[in-house]
Automatic annotation (TrEMBL):
GO terms for molecular function: copper ion binding; hydrolase activity; S-methyl-5-thioadenosine phosphorylase activity. PANTHER family: PURINE NUCLEOSIDE PHOSPHORYLASE LACC1, UNCHARACTERIZED PROTEIN YFIH. It catalyses: inosine + phosphate = alpha-D-ribose 1-phosphate + hypoxanthine; S-methyl-5'-thioadenosine + phosphate = 5-(methylsulfanyl)-alpha-D-ribose 1-phosphate + adenine; adenosine + H2O + H(+) = inosine + NH4(+); adenosine + phosphate = alpha-D-ribose 1-phosphate + adenine. InterPro entries: Cu_polyphenol_OxRdtase, Cu_polyphenol_OxRdtase_sf, Cytotoxic_necrot_fac-like_cat. This is Purine nucleoside phosphorylase. Pfam families: Cu-oxidase_4 (PF02578). SUPFAM superfamilies: CNF1/YfiH-like putative cysteine hydrolases. Keywords: Hydrolase, Metal-binding, Transferase, Zinc. Coiled coil: none annotated. It comes from Spirosoma arboris. Belongs to the purine nucleoside phosphorylase YfiH/LACC1 family. It comes from the Bacteria. The keyword Ribonucleoprotein does not apply.
Amino acid sequence: MIVSNASRLHITPAIFYPFPGLIAAESTRHGGVSPVPFASLNLGINTTDGPSNVNENRRRFFETIEASTNQFASSHQVHGTDVLHATEAGRFDGYDALITDKPGLLIGVTVADCVPILIYDHEHKAVAAIHAGWRGTVGGIVTKTLDRMKQQFGTSAEHCYAYVGTCIDECSFEVGPEVAEQFESELKRVDAETGKGYIDLKRANTKQLTAFGIPFAQIGVSPFSTVLHNTDFFSYRAEQGQTGRMLAVIGLKS
C-alpha cells in the first residue's frame, strides 16, 4: 500500500529504472489542491473540477517529473483504438493511444479505472502511451499500437519494455454477459454463487504484449488497484463517477 503523503505525487515503474534518458510515471491522487470529490491531485481536464485546480495540479505533477505541461501531447479519449503519431505538444481529439520518437515530447493518457500501458522501444528510442478500457482491450489497441510503432519506427518486440499500469482489479470489475462474452475464457471469471462475470484487464493487455513477442521479463505490471487502493488512486466505479483522473506519461528526455 502506498504511504499517503503529499510528496508522493507519482510512481515511476520499476521496469523503466535502467533507462536514465526516459521519463515515465503514473500519478497518484496525492499532493494536489482539488477539493472533495476530486481530492486532491485531479489531472482530468474533462471533469467538473475548477480549471485553475487542474492546471495547478498538472503543474505540480509535471514539476515532480522534471518536465512541463507545454511539452505534453494528449488526446480526448473515446474508448476507441485509433493511434496518434505525436510530433508536437497539444491536446488532440479521438485517439486512445499516442506514439512518438521525438526527444523532449511527453505523451500520456488519462485514467480512473481503465488500464494505462506505457511502452519503450530502447533500440529506436520510441515510446507509446495507451488507454485501454474494456472496449479498447477487445479491439486490440495494444496490438494496433505496437504494429503502428513497427511501421513508423521499425520497432521489434525484443527491444520493447512495457508497463501495465494501475487500473480496476479483476475482483472489482463486474460486467454483464454482453461484455463478458467478448473475452476469452481465460480472461474472465463467473462467480459460482452469484453468476456475475468479472474481467481481468491487466492480464488481457499483458497477453497482447506477449503475443506481439515482448518477453514477459520485460513487462512490469502494477501491483495496485484503483478500487482496492482507492485512498491512493481515483476510481470512477468505486466513487460512482464523482472523482478525479490520473495521468500516465512517457517520453524521452531532451
